[in-house]
Specification:
The protein is of the alpha+beta class. It has a single domain (2-131), classed as Mannose-Binding Protein A, Chain A, CATH 3.10.100.10. Helices cover 15% and strands 36% of the residues. It has helices at 18-27, 38-47; strands at 2-4, 7-16, 31-32, 59-67, 76-77, 100-108, 115-121, 126-131. The protein has a four-stranded antiparallel β-sheet with strand order 1-2-8-3, with helices on both faces. It has a four-stranded antiparallel β-sheet with strand order 5-4-6-7. A hairpin with an 8-residue loop joins strand 4 and strand 5. Residues 4-131 form the C-type lectin domain. InterPro entries: C-type_lectin-like, C-type_lectin-like/link_sf, C-type_lectin/snaclec_domain, CTDL_fold. It comes from Priapulus caudatus (Priapulid worm).
Length: 132
């Protein structure tokens, strides 16, 4: 657990699907992280500096609490609020596959602006962040 002005955060290191990670957070009376301010985004970015390899990509990924699974291209946080803070990778969300409906943050290794959001297949097994 880590504290920040925006709340208390938990890093779940066991890789899970997005739905299972969301259920794990709810089981702790929490949500997958909802980023509401730039300060919170920077805190989560720093917290995301963990050693997890996203399948087939040179990046480190962690689930966040947004999805467009209900309405394609309408990204909502698990709280039902619209995604307002912009942290998307250039060209994302790309919606390149039908299953790319869930948000992750990942670290582009070797790139100055390292932490960006991307849409990913919700069945990928990734660690996750909860916010209480």
């Amino acid at each position: 657990f880590r504290l920040h002005a925006e709340g208390c955060y938990y890093y779940g290191s066991t890789p899970m699907t997005w739905a299972d990670a969301n259920s794990a957070c709810v089981g702790m009376t929490a949500n997958l992280v909802v980023i509401e301010t730039d300060a919170e985004r920077h805190f989560v970015d720093a917290f995301a500096d963990i050693p997890y390899q996203y399948p087939d990509e040179e990046s480190l990924s962690v689930w966040l609490g947004a999805t467009d699974a209900v309405t394609e291209e309408e990204w909502l946080w698990v709280t039902g609020d619209s995604v307002g803070v912009d942290g998307w990778l250039a060209g994302s969300p790309k919606n390149s596959a039908a299953a790319d409906d869930h948000m992750c943050v990942y670290n582009l290794l070797g790139v100055e602006l390292r932490y960006v959001w991307d849409d990913a297949d919700g069945t990928a097994l990734l660690p996750y962040f909860c916010e209480m």
